[in-house]
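Fold it.
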Amino acid sequence: MDDPAVDRDITLSGLRLAYRDYAGEGRPVVLLHGVASNARIWSPVAPLLTPRFRVLAVDQRGHGQSDKPSSGYDFPSVVGDVRELIEALGLERPLVAGHSWGGNVALELAARHPERVAGLVLVDGGFMEISARPGMTWERAERELAPPDLTHLTPAQLIEGAKQWELGAIWSEAVEAALLGNFEVTEAGTVRAYLSRANHMQVVRALWEQRPSELYRDVRCPVLFVLAEREGEGRAREWNEMKRVAVERAQERLADCQVLWLKQTIHDIPLHRPGELAQAIEAFAERLER
């Protein structure tokens, strides 16, 4: 499917945010990407929603085509960006969908500004507390969650390498565009991530300090978790179990919570299962009050 988005930007409190405007009619839907990603990860999903919704996908600060300040990657600042965007564009009580870290941003937005959000769709995000994992210390998290150094690669080498990852099995023009949307090309012809290592680690630190389990009781809107489940042993099984425990905690504390598991699905659900994700968002939105 062709990507019909119109690329726009808006300056809020001195920060320029880029967003992809898919237009459409109906309830506003704001789509938030994960860390070191960009708005194009939603390209396979967004056009499926426009027959019933007013859809836009945002490049969060430090990512994609948005400004990249050297500070402000804590949740109050990032949530403030999204809140200001909603207000400036006149989006009345949107449904906010966030993937991975974007889910954590969406969760904090709904907890801190419940009057702004009609519903949350947390796509393989918004549930895990890094600091609560057994044996996890900040030093370990800092080491394990640091971004890889890809600056020696050309775009062609980056693509070839990515095809060896789990993305290879679902490769398409949309997947390639989403991947390349994370990087600029230097004068030397190699890639450089838009999200710098220093800014990336500020996001990791904010995730370390966030406590989703303490935010759930402040969320007043309905919530849908859409979760990827990979079969397997070892780390895959351990990760699935940690995810289940975290989501069960969320179900206990959220006033209105639904959970949808997608089996044999990679973390990048918007790229892997866009049709099912769009259907889940549409069905969930039907039950939201204006």
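The chain has eleven helices and ten strands.
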